[in-house]
Amino acid sequence: MHISEGVLSPQVLACGAALTAAGLALGLRSLKNERLMTVGLMASAFFVASLVHVPLGPGSVHLILNGLLGMLLGWAAFPAIFTALILQAVLFQFGGITLLGVNTFTMALPAVLCGLALRPLLRREGRVRLLAAFACGFLSVAGAALLTALALAWTDEGFVQSARILLVAHLPVMALEGLISAFALSFLARVRPEVLTLFSDRS
């Protein structure tokens, strides 16, 4: 879901940079020393999962795992995603340095909001937790696709059709991410239940 360099207007780029700066400030403020390893692992998972791109107009389709990051990291998903995007831009020229703000914001904000909104259900056990995890994965990708589409549409009316295609093309990705999030959370609940203690925190 990376947008290519030279596509967005300076106004959209500046807005994305400012919003991401605010998200990074909140994320770093909530980040505790004992959670650094979890944040690093999740940033690595995001980095690897989103390396395989299927080009689609000015953007691309790929796994994101932002919903999983939103569930487990809260606002710390912002610095995790930002760090991974920097490495992708520098090492593989995915996205771009000028687009770090927009790309980070479009992927991180929906994930954080979904994780926080669904946290009461994620605290519960059994089917309710699995459904909440699926919803978090699905809706986080849906939100990221919507924000990316809006960034394209606000840049130029000529990108409106590309924005629509982007949304439709990510429908299968939304479902797949929901399943991955539910499976991953179920697995973690069995083997590393201490990771889920975030659900009772404010971060």
From TrEMBL:
Pfam families: CbiM (PF01891). Gene3D superfamilies: 1.10.1760.20. It comes from the Bacteria. Its main location: membrane. The chain crosses the membrane at residues 12-31, 37-56, 68-91, 97-118, 130-153, 165-189. Keywords: Cell membrane, Membrane, Transmembrane, Transmembrane helix, Transport. GO terms for cellular component: plasma membrane. The keyword Transport applies. It is a multi-pass membrane protein. The keyword Transmembrane helix applies. GO terms for biological process: transition metal ion transport. It is found in: Cell membrane. Signal peptide: none annotated. PANTHER family: METAL TRANSPORT PROTEIN HI_1621-RELATED. This is Cobalt transporter CbiM. It comes from Candidatus Desulfovibrio intestinipullorum.
